[in-house]
2-oxoglutarate ferredoxin oxidoreductase subunit beta (Serpentinicella alkaliphila), 248 residues
Amino acid sequence: MTVVFQRTKGLTDKQFHYCPGCTHGVIHRLVGEVLEELNIVGKSIGVAPVGCSVLAYDYFNCDMHEAAHGRAPAVATGIKRTRPDNVVFTYQGDGDLASIGTAEIVHAAHRSEKFTTIFVNNAIYGMTGGQMAPTTLIGQKSTTSPEGRDLITTGMPLRVAEMMATIEGAVFVERVSVHNVPHIRKAKKAIKKAFEVQLAGIGFGIVEILSTCPTNWGMTPVDSLKWLEQNMIPYYPLGNFRTPEEVR
Ligand SMILES: Cc1ncc(C[n+]2csc(CCOP(=O)(O)OP(=O)(O)O)c2C)c(N)n1
Ligand code: SF4
């Protein structure tokens, strides 16, 4: 029988534990496909976060290392410096990277550590039950902002890609989304480019991916895709912020 479609070799056979409609699964698949297409599954080492994707170590078909909440860039730094021939990536949520782990990602970018970060921004703390994250939108309801996020008391949501773009060591910075098929395809291109930057030995690369959390947003999977498009993209504009000459 001719095989016309199969699971990417970049992922294991394990069934995802993610909620229905959660786009963590889509992003896992894109990363897995890129690892397979670049023929780097066997030499890659991923660093899993704390958050809903804590079990990423079960899903990617490469060596994986778990990190404490927000510390994946520090762990990735150690791994990449001691094993420079391996391809190293972190997979982090917005609570992990943009809150408790802000210092780690900022300094890793300033040092231009030669690893790749997949940053999943779903505008909320998913795993712990829907608390406000630094990326929660103004007016967005969460368990710790039941009336909606308030500008005066909590400030503006953090735009990570824009912040990274101010750091010269962040040599590849792009924000993408996975709310529909054309954008999923663009997201894969950005992820591939970020890994190519690492393979070329240039420096630190990050892809911010706008993602859904239907469970904690209190929406159906379809409505959450629409909500992302209508509410997140206006505040978190998509696009490339920096690409090194070598991989253009
Ligand atoms: C040091 C430490 N502080 C807090 C926590 C609790 N905690 C676990 S996951 C999480 C937030 C996860 O949110 P995010 O990174 O956005 O990922 P998501 O679950 O939305 O994918 C928090 C605060 C922890 N595990 N360790
Ligand atoms: S709680 Fe949210 S982020 Fe976590 S698996 Fe469910 S939908 Fe995804």
User: Anything to note?
Assistant: Residues 181-199 form the longest helix (19 residues).
